[in-house]
Design a protein that fits this description.
This protein is α/β, with parallel strands linked by helices. The chain has nine helices and eight strands. Helix 8 packs across helix 9.
Length: 250
């Protein structure tokens, strides 16, 4: 049975590419959507750069589904990113911040309403963060905030790879918090690479997307993400998309 999900890619996959080079690669890639990372285009770029970037995205073969991951330390940092995501035509913003920072959560909820954008709280791991109290790394971290803020635009961006690094089973997250998952980064971890293409290591892609279909009501694309050597990035994307398509057809 074929499950109906679009497939996208996080632009961090091409972290050493310029935005123009990234879009050129995606012209021939089997994806329809892009989650745009601020390194490639952000509100911190000057207006001519932003305008040119928006024109390039508009002329490309992909559409921007989301923007992030945005790292937040204070509530007042969030607005410019929501305004920018709205300008991009994104449907959601992925965010990273300390789970105990209720003032940030409250600001995110307000901005979600104001801009009509979903907010995906992104989980991280010890791969990028030494102090895990500053990020969402467990099911309880996510549940503690989502249970207290039952807002239909506030949810979880489930990063399968980071959960796996922390020995959290992504399928368990879907069973527990599926109704709050609003975005997804499909990533794996393997003996070869700590951040690998989905299906190369511990992640059972077919089982995972099957549970998403059963427990979540996900409108956003399945976004492929990994951080491999850049000379491997284009071919790895084709490999990853083929794996995801096979899983969707099971």
């Amino acid at each position: 049975m074929s499950r109906d999900y679009d497939i996208g890619v996080q632009s961090v996959v091409f972290k050493d590419f310029s935005l123009a080079e990234l879009l050129d690669e995606l012209d021939d890639a089997p994806v329809t959507h892009l989650e745009l990372w601020g390194h490639h285009l952000s509100p911190e770029h000057d207006e001519p750069t932003v305008a040119a970037g928006l024109d390039a995205v508009e002329a490309s073969d992909v559409s921007v589904c989301g923007y992030g991951v945005v790292d937040l330390e204070t509530p007042d940092e969030a607005r410019e990113h929501f305004r920018f995501a709205d300008r991009l035509g994104a449907s959601y913003v992925t965010v990273n911040y300390p789970p105990a920072a209720d003032a940030i959560t409250e600001e995110l909820v307000d901005l979600a309403d104001e801009f009509g954008l979903d907010v995906g709280i992104h989980n991280y791991s010890s791969v990028h963060h030494d102090d895990l109290s500053r990020v969402f790394s467990t099911i309880d971290d996510a549940r503690s905030v989502l249970d207290r803020y039952e807002h239909d635009r506030l949810g979880l961006c489930i990063d399968t790879g980071h959960f796996l690094v922390e020995d959290v089973v992504p399928e368990d997250v879907v069973r527990d918090l599926g109704d709050r998952i609003n975005s997804c980064h499909l990533k794996d971890t393997s003996e070869a690479e700590i951040e690998d293409v989905p299906g190369a290591g511990q992640l059972d892609v077919a089982s995972f997307v099957g549970l998403l279909d059963e427990h979540a009501d996900l409108d956003a694309p399945l976004v492929v993400e990994y951080e491999l050597p850049q000379d491997r990035a284009p071919d790895a994307l084709r490999e990853a998309v083929a794996t995801v398509r096979d899983a969707l057809d099971e």
